[in-house]
Every structure is written in C-alpha cells, then in structure tokens.
Amino acid sequence: MVLTGARVLNVYTGEFEQTNLWLDDGRVVSRLPHPDMKARTTVDLAGQYVVPGMIDAHVHIESALVAPSEIGHILLQHGVTTIVADPHELANVAGTAGIEYMIKDARQTPLDIRYMLPSSVPCVPFDNNGATLHAADLEPLYKYPEINGLAEVMDYGAVARDDADTMAKVHDAYAHGHHADGHAAGLTPEQLEVMRAHGMDTDHESATVADALARVDAGMYVFLREGTVERDIANTIGAVTPRNYDRFAFCTDDKTIGDLIGEGSIDHNVRLAIEYGLPAELAYTMASNNAARAHRLTDRGALVPGQLADLVVVDDLNSVNISRVGCILGVVIKLS
Asked: From which residue to which does the signal peptide run (predicted)?
C-alpha cells in the first residue's frame, strides 16, 4: 500500500512533510517518492495528515469497567493503538490469575495492550484484599510477551530503606530488559532523586508545572495526565518547551468508559495541549514517539522504514478529527 497526498509527521525533525508513505507486511517501507515502485493499493489522502498511532503511557483498564478486549473497540476509534496498562485493581482481588486473565483477554483486540506488573499488592500492609504478590510471584509472568516491566512503584518508604522484596521486583524488570514506572505524588526533589537512583524512570503524578519540571530535573519521563478525576493538562502543559518536550508523554491513568466514548483518550490530551498553546507537531510526538521511548517500545512511535505501520490519519490537527486508523495487526479502520 502507498499513502499519497498527505503531510506525514516526522517526529525526528518536528515537521509535517508532504511525501508518500509506503507500507508492506505491517511495516513502513519508505517515505520517499520512488517512481520505480508500484503498490497494489493506493490511498489518496490529499489535504490530510498522518501521525504515528497514539500511546496511553499509563492506564488502569479496570477504571473503565470493561474487559481489555472491549476497551479496544473504543480506543482504536480515538487513534490510540497501544496502551501500557497496570492491572493493579484486579490483581488486588484475584492475584496472578487476574493478571493472566487480563493478558489473555487482550489478545482478542487489535489494540496492542502491554502490561506493567503491579508493584504494590496490597497497597498498604493492613489492606484487606484478595492477594499478596511478592517478587517471586511476579517474576514468572515475564514469560508473557505482553509484559513490559514493573508498574508504578508507590511505596517510597520501601524504596528509601532498600526493602528487599521491592528492590527484587525492580531488579527483575530490568533483568528482563524492561524498566520500572514510578509514582511520586507529593515527593520532594530530594526524594525524587532517591526514586530515580533506585530505578524508577517515569512518573504520572505531576499536578503543577513545578512538579513536572522537578521530575524532568531528576531524569524521569513525565506522563501528563487527563483522566476522569485527575485533570492535570491545564496545570502542567506549561512545563513543556521545545527544549525539553522529549521528556514528556501523555496518559489517562483512570478514565470511565463514558468519558472515553464521549471525550476521548489520548486524542483528548493532544487536543487540550494544542488548545493551551503547544505546537501540534510537539503534541503528536509526545503522544506517540515519546511514550514509545519511555517504555522502550522500539518498533513504533515513528513513521520511518522498519517501524510498524501503526498510524492515524487526521483531517484537522487542532481538533484531532480522526478519519482512519491503521494498527500494528494490519487492521485499517475507516471512521469517516
């Protein structure tokens, strides 16, 4: 297939380029004219824009109150082709069996659902819950290719005192080639450095510009959040500049199915960011390439040769009006 006539986002130059996009076997082959090449299918996208598929960098599917396979129906329509989920809530109820259910159910949707293993089950030692997951319980789950690391480490005290089980969970994530998300709500710059020194390299708990910049200073990727309850974009987007934007991505964290249907997912974050003055090319790059880099997903986030043909066709950049979605399993959804 070749897509012609559109302006394609180059996330490395920050420009929308008028060019062709050649696709084959689920991957990008070229973005050059190639008069000598022929495609079985030509799609004319004159006047439209093509951006990489959007990624929700941190989400709890359980907050939507639907199964992983069902949430795919909604998110793909909003240009989200990958999500990185923390099955913390179900794990608190059903332990590793709950996590395995989430993994296997997600295989029914073309939405690519990656999971971070929940780090704090239970949340606190005195919680009356359905399971307790230690490092030894979580480590066997890395056999599943959908596992992408360790989810938000929220027990700062355990990190600061080098708790053996907590640090074993972090070590296992890195030993399997992944990483560990942080949860640094209310932490000081000094405490942020402790978290980063112990391996937590992302955070989604910024509520102010100062919060976001402190996390960048500590060397973290920052996921700017807009969910159902926590609505942080208006108060944090001012932290993003052309010099530091590569440290920022977007997440929803917790969002009800009603809000996902009516308002959107990461497409809504992008829409708000542009509304508050962020250049469109930066917003779409944060929603794709930056999230991919933060989670070490090296095969997506940019529309260049060798990358997955994971893309979104947009009619209007500012309103994020989506007309087509092509996801990594080769499914093309035409929305209008």
From this structure: none
What total of structural domains would you count in the chain? 2
Q: pTM score > 0.70 for this model?
A: yes
Say whether pLDDT at 336 is over 60.
no
pLDDT of res. 329: 41
Is the CB of residue 271 less than 8 Å from the CB of residue 319? Answer: yes
Residue 305 domain-assigned (yes or no)? no
For residues 163 and 251, membership in a common domain is answered with: yes
Q: Considering the chain, what percentage of its residues have pLDDT values greater than 70?
A: 97
Calculate the dihedral angle through the C-alpha atoms of 42, 336, 311, 286, rounding to the nearest 10 degrees.
140
Q: Is residue 128 exposed (0-12), middle (13-18) or buried (19+ Cβ within 10 Å)?
A: exposed
Q: What is the pLDDT of residue 327?
A: 60
Task: Note down the domain range covering 38.
Answer: 2-49+319-334
Q: Do 197 and 60 reside in the same domain of the chain?
A: yes
DSSP 183-229: --TT--HHHHHHHHHTTB-EE----SHHHHHHHHHTT-EEEEEB-SS
